[in-house]
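name: query_chain
kind: protein
chains: 1
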Amino acid sequence: MKITTYISIVLSSLLVIAFFSFGDDAQSQTFKVRPSKDDRPNIVIIMADDLGFSDLGCYGGEINTPNLDCLAATGVRSTSFYNTSRCCPTRASLLTGLYPHQAGLGRMTMDAGLPGYQGTLNANTVTIAEVLKKEGYQTGMVGKWHVSETKDLGGDKQLKWLAHQENYGPFSDLKSYPTARGFDKFYGNIWGVVDYFDPFSLVNGNQSVEKVPEDYYHTQAIGDSAVAYVSEFSRKENPFFLYVAHCAPHWPLQAPDSIIQKYVDKYDKGWQAIREERYKNLIEKGLISEDTQLPEFMFPKLNWENNSDKEWDVRAMAVHAAMVDIMDRTIGELIKKLEETGELENTLVLFLSDNGASSERPSKYGPGFDRAGSTRNGEMVQFPVDKEVLPGPQTVLSGIGPQWAHSVNTPFRFWKAKVFEGGINTPFIASWPKELKNDGEVRTVPAHVSDIMATCVDVSGATYPTKFDGRSITPTPGNSLIPLLKGNTDRPTQETFFWEHFGSQALRKGDLKLVRLDAGQPWELYNLSNDKTEQVNLAATHHEELKELAKEWEELASKYQVYPAPN
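structure:
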């Protein structure tokens, strides 16, 4: 559908933001190639936030995502691509090619005074943007940064800052902003959580954006900014690196009502039914085998038919779906612009999520830190702990909760912040028409978000530095994804994959995965080659393997700066 332009923000002389300017149908893949002396590819990385493993249509979901589905049909998908289980640690890992503690972001964006927990990218990191900029790439980022330290001013002062009622200067140290870490251009939010209709910590370059129009919607603004950057970058011969970091569908559940209404009827069948449908779709699409076991519903005492909060729960999932729908539309507009400018044929596009869907009930948190208690005009924001107010508008702060999070992470167990597969296994799509001739193929070989740096270095012809601007740089454990994406290898990108987040711990070596919910729980052991959904715990019968992997986990925890850890 076509709707008239609704906002103009001075990102550059080119940027005009248009609301919902891209239609529901994916565009055809007829490539116009712009002549250029520099044949290095453009690189576009698109990250969703708190997306469920099976939310997208091409991953078995019922949400309308024709543009990502088209990208998958003409590219490559993975069923074993890993993130780090949480927003800012995954972003740190992607940007630097390191495990999050190595980069200084083992937990959240608060400084715990320890090497692995500095709350911001440390001095021994280099970003993809910094590496590629040195090689002549144009660099731009739009969306969620979330790797700068965030400090709470406390009490009423913080709440007024969040609500745009008082101004307390930069949202973090300007030396940690994207434009100080290799990005020529940036439009987006420095902190993690946003009001989608009036986001806190909104920045253009390194200048705060003080006000947005009444009809602003952040996902659309991120998408339109990306389109504007491509328009500008494509005028020059040297290639570009563009990082599109969406906030959607992270809570708060907020979206235009017209899009929400498309999905209300889809979810009145409930959590279990959606799980079953997605599971069958995953099998039909060849993403899991028929013998993959669907775990029992994690909430056996709950039954949808007896759910007294049906209306609220249906609405919550409909808003989540609307947020994904809108994100997909903006991605379609970006792909369309790449095609129109002749850039698509030689552009490597990577899409992933920072973690699995979130089980959080942020209504229970109440106002504070990153959650405003009122709008800029003083209208109260409601936190419906008892689901007494329906989600969707700016004045309600809520999330989908654990039952829906479990369902949208089908076929796995658990969710964001836990390192079982539901928290760390992300939908992953790669497209590069010039080089990847594997239309619609699915890869099962494991890879990790820390491999993206090495991939960018590989395709650009750059070199990962040992020193950068006089600083010693931590070597990356990652390796290029290109052999895997082209189907030229069946070897994992790393010998051992490692996880730790707030005590949730895991290690994958070959097909064996060692995992536990927290440090106080016993280790569990799974063979993912025949037990992808972690159903048969081998800990009691494979003592030696478990012992060896547990020892290796401890060794890597020390190497990757998990220790010393905060109390």
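note: The two ends are 53 Å apart (CA to CA).
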